[in-house]
Amino acid sequence: MTTISAVAKAAGVSVSTVSHVLNKTRYVSPEKVKLVMDTVEAIGYIPNALARSLKLSSTGTIGLVISAISNPYFSDIICAIEAECSKRGLIVFLCDTQDDPDRELELVQHLHQRRVDGIILAPSGDPKRSLDYLIEADLPCVLVDRLSDSRFDQVGTDNVAAIRMLVDHLVTLHHKRVGIILGQPGFATTVERMNAFRAAMTENGIEVPDDLISDSNNNTADATASTHRLLELTEPPTAILASNNLTMIGAMRAIRERGLRVPEDISVLGIDDFEWADYFEPRLTLIAQPCDEIGRKAADLLIERIGNKRRPRETIRLLPLLRVRESCGEAA
Amino acid sequence: MTTISAVAKAAGVSVSTVSHVLNKTRYVSPEKVKLVMDTVEAIGYIPNALARSLKLSSTGTIGLVISAISNPYFSDIICAIEAECSKRGLIVFLCDTQDDPDRELELVQHLHQRRVDGIILAPSGDPKRSLDYLIEADLPCVLVDRLSDSRFDQVGTDNVAAIRMLVDHLVTLHHKRVGIILGQPGFATTVERMNAFRAAMTENGIEVPDDLISDSNNNTADATASTHRLLELTEPPTAILASNNLTMIGAMRAIRERGLRVPEDISVLGIDDFEWADYFEPRLTLIAQPCDEIGRKAADLLIERIGNKRRPRETIRLLPLLRVRESCGEAA
DNA sequence: CATCGAAACGTTTGCGCAATCGTTTTTTCT
DNA sequence: AGAAAAAACGATTGCGCAAACGTTTCGATG
Question: Residues B106-109: contacts with CB within 8 Å, 24+ apart?
Answer without folding.
Answer: B107/B63, B107/B65, B108/B63, B108/B65, B108/B133, B108/B134, B108/B139, B109/A46, B109/B133
